[in-house]
Write a structure and sequence with these properties.
The structure is a homodimer of 210-residue chains. Chain A has 210 residues and is mainly alpha-helical. Helix content of chain A is 68%, strand content 0%. Chain A binds a DNA duplex (30 and 30 nucleotides) through helix 3.
DNA sequence: TCAACAATAGACCGATCAGTCTATTTTTAT
DNA sequence: ATAAAAATAGACTGATCGGTCTATTGTTGA
């Protein structure tokens, strides 16, 4: 608990992070950020130079949240790797419960920016790789038979939980994701396919939709 | 296969749907839609009245895609309910493989609009409920012990697959989601918790992150 | 005390946006 | 063939945006 006054830089960063997620990046004007931060217009440009750089700084802080989870919070738990994987979903739940949770700034930013050749997507994918890599290390420790597939499954339900929580504005998505993670872990060493055969051939005929 | 020429209305709708997803809604100007549609400026306003109404029309077409899957494609398959659930992920994969797939317009729209008191979120949530309801009916047919939880799990991995496919631009997310769905279905009648106890208490201590 | 710096308010600029309007051409139906 | 309807190009408007600039006020450290 530092008693230090929040710096101008911090005030801008926090307001931008909140508004970019709550209202969208394009929809959030510089003026609104300045109002919420309680900071003068020129200060934004002396500290960050542009709205784009401010967004990059917001990306960094969001990535640091994830790195903090994987590099400090989860390793501090005295439990098995499998339990650490499940504990990740408790961290997600705490995140979703915050009053100013409005989705992941990476996902939201990608959603509202050009998907071909845009720096936003490149930055988001780079950070995503770093996060998935840490998740993969955790899965590796758990002794999964096919760690890559398990990692991809877990990454998918993490993203699903974030989006579900954003859209429904309900932190329960983390709990559902945790239950799903338990299913994945329970099936980790079982046979890779269902008793009944695949239906992928029967499905192919059913496609002519708009 | 109709040989009918595409109407002005359709051309606008298709261009808008593609651009809203590929580049974002705010980032897509009217002029760009008109260029891609090959349509005059005034035609947009005679047919739709405003950019907002055009977005609503795009929402309708995307919802109809889902309704077509649940109400026509999947019921047409001669297989068990469980297999129909899995077949949904094959439909998703076909969707992701389209060259102009850039995410779900509902998710993307929510991501870039105000999350408190905005019509965009309300419309998206309404359609989401209708889709989840159809998914729930399918799960009910499969004889799941706890159909509500299973439905929420499946809904979550569907959203996860869509976002993963959007961010990574890789249709393989549908396959991972299908494998996860198989895990969920396989665990459907098993005991609801892992052999080892929960770690939720041990996790609570690890939270002070930014 | 006073100079160097940081932050302030707010006018201002050029660009872009959604939407309107006019005048012209093309299509359609009879 | 011709009149009505639909679509066209493109100029135009008012509002908003990101970013710059000036002038003033606090704040800090020697």
């Amino acid at each position: 608990m530092k008693a230090t006054r929040k710096s101008t830089e911090e005030k801008l960063l926090l307001a931008a992070r909140r508004l970019f997620c709550r209202a969208g990046i394009h929809a959030t004007g510089i003026t609104r950020i300045l109002e919420e931060a309680g900071v003068a217009r020129a200060s934004l440009y002396t500290h960050y130079g542009s709205k784009e750089n401010l967004l990059k700084a917001v990306f960094d802080t969001e990535a640091n949240m994830w790195f903090h989870w994987f590099d400090l919070d989860l390793p501090g738990l005295e439990c098995s790797a499998r339990e650490r994987i499940l504990a990740l979903f408790d961290l997600l739940e705490k995140w979703f419960e915050k009053e100013d949770f409005f989705g992941c700034v990476f996902i939201n930013a990608v959603a509202e920016h050009e998907k071909d050749s845009a720096w936003v997507k490149d930055v988001a994918v780079t950070y995503r790789d770093q996060i998935i890599s840490r998740l993969g290390a955790l899965v590796g420790e758990s002794g999964a038979k096919d760690p890559d597939i398990v990692t991809q499954k877990l990454g998918l339900i993490i993203e699903g939980a974030i989006v579900t929580a954003m859209v429904t504005q309900n932190s329960q998505a983390a709990h559902i994701a945790r239950l799903t993670a338990e299913d994945i872990l329970r099936c980790m060493e079982c046979s890779p396919s269902l008793p009944e055969g695949s239906v992928s051939s029967a499905t192919a005929a059913a496609m002519e939709s708009a």
